[in-house]
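In the current project phase, the collection of sequences with tokenised folds has grown. A representative record is quoted in full directly below:
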Amino acid sequence: MKDITGIADIKLFVNEFYNKVRKDELIGPVFSEKITGDWQPHLDKMYAFWNAALFAEPGYRGNPFAKHAPLKISSPHFERWLVLFADTIDSNFTGPMAVDAKKRAGLMADIFLVKLERMNGDPGKVIV
């Protein structure tokens, strides 16, 4: 296996990860409730997000937390998301960027959980 080196690798892991997400009994329904048709626009955003996160490439615009704040998600959802993400990375890549991707996913999950807890179920508290 090789490390994550660019957009082709990002597309590979994003596509594989979301294939797992769609089939997952816990988090699959959360996504399928919001993405009812074509998944490609969401995948395109995720390619740009991870390309920006891992390689500082411009192209991602958005507020990921604001999109997640109204969802009925909690710690078990994030735990499952991280398991699926790490499994996807570990099945395809090895090296510093693979480790960094998993670290960034973990940090993002931690930050989102803290923010969700502070909102106390009120998505109107999100600053966009």
In short: The radius of gyration is 14 Å. The chain has a mean pLDDT of 91. Helices lie at 7-23, 28-34, 40-55, 64-68, 75-92, 96-119.
